[in-house]
Amino acid sequence: MRKFPLQKYACRVVFGLVGLLAGWGGAAAGLAIGWAADIIVDRVREDVRRKKAADNPTSRGSGSRDAVSGITEPFCGAELVCALAVYCVSDAQIAAEQLRACFGIIGGADWFSLCRPASEAESLNGDLLTECLAALIKQNESAVPVERVFTLLAALEFGWNEAERGRKPSAYLAELLGRRTVSNEIAAAYLILDIPSAASDADVKAAHRRLVSLYHPDTLACLPERQQEIARSAFIRIQHAYETVAAARGW
Questions:
Q1: Smallest Cα–Cα separation from 155: which of 102, 216, 199, 195?
Q2: Could you tell me the sign of the dihedral formed by the alpha carbons of 216, 151, 125, 115, in that order?
Q3: DSSP assignment, residue 161?
Q4: Number of other CB atoms surrounding residue 105 within 10 Å
Q5: Which backbone phi and psi does 65 adopt, to 5 degrees?
Q6: What gap in Å lies between CA 98 and CA 201, rounded to an integer?
Q7: Contact 106, 249 (CB under 8 A)
Q8: In DSSP terms, which residues pair with 72 in a beta bridge?
Q9: What does the alpha-carbon distance between residue 94 and residue 35 come to, in Å, rounded to a whole number?
Q10: What distances in angstroms separate CA 113 from CA 62, 68, 72, 125, 231, one per listed residue?
C-alpha cells in the first residue's frame, strides 16, 4: 500500500487543522491557503535540488544538457514534452507531477525545472510544439520513449474541450507520425490517479479521495481566479480518470 506523503502536504494538513478550530469554513480556507503554501515550498525544494545537481554534475543522469537552460534532459526531446505538458494543463507544478508519475526520475530528471520555462512563456503554440516533437521523433525515434509520451498526453487531455482548445496534441502527433491513434485511456487514468494498474479497489478509491480533497473547487474558492481555473481543470481530469477506472472494474 502506498504511504501518504505527509511532507508534501504538510502545509495543507497544518493550515486545515488550524482552520478547523474555527469550523468547517475555516478548515476549507485553511486547506486552500495550505495548498498555495505547499506549491511554494515544493518549488523551493525543486530549486534546491536543481542547485545541488548543478554543483555536482556527476550525480546527474546521462541525458543531454540543453545549451540554453543548462538543464539536463533525461531523454531526447524531454523539454518539448514538458512544454506540451504545460500547454495541456497550464501549470508547471501539475505538469511536473504527471511527468514524474509517467517517467519517474530517469536520468536524475528535474521535471519542474524543465517545465518552468514553458510556464513563464507569454503563450504556447500547441501545434508548433507537436510538430517539433514529431520531427525530432522521426530523426531519432529510438531515443524518445514514444509510447510513454502518448500515455502522458492521453492523461493530460482528459476533459479536453476541442471546441475551445482545438485538436488534441496526441491526435495531431499520431497524424504527423503516420500512426493509428490508439486509446491509452485506461493507462492514462491510472497515471492521473498516481497508482499502479494492479492497485486494489480500496487503493483506487483512497487515491481518488485524496486528489479530490486537494483540487475540489469548493476547497480552493479563496484562491485567485487563474489558480481556480487550473484547479478546476485538474479536478475534471481526476473525475474522468476515476470514472474510467470504475467502468473498467465494473463498479
A1: 102
A2: positive
A3: -
A4: 12
A5: -100, 125
A6: 22
A7: no
A8: 65
A9: 12
A10: 17, 13, 10, 20, 21
One pLDDT digit (tens) per residue for the chain, 251 residues: 444 454 556 666 666 676 667 777 766 776 667 666 666 666 666 555 555 544 443 344 445 544 444 567 788 889 999 999 999 988 888 888 889 888 886 767 789 989 988 888 888 899 999 999 999 999 988 889 998 898 888 888 877 777 777 888 988 999 999 887 655 678 878 888 888 888 899 999 998 988 888 778 777 677 677 667 777 778 888 888 888 889 888 88
Task: For 229, list phi and psi in degrees, rounded to 5.
Answer: -65, -45
Q: 65 - beta bridge partners? A: 72
Distance CA 133, CA 172 (A): 11
Locus of grid cell 554543483: 55
Q: Single out the residue of 211, 212, 231 nearest to residue 221, CA to CA.
A: 231
For residues 75 and 144, the answer to whether their CB atoms sit within 8 Å is yes
Which among 99, 121, 107 has a CA at the least distance from the CA of 65?
107
Residues 6+ apart with CB under 8 A from 250: none
Write down the residue that cell numbers 493507462 correspond to: 187
Residue 19 CA: distances (Å) to CA of 40, 212, 219: 20, 19, 12
Contact 155, 207 (CB under 8 A): no
What Rg do the C-alpha atoms of the chain give, in angstroms? 19
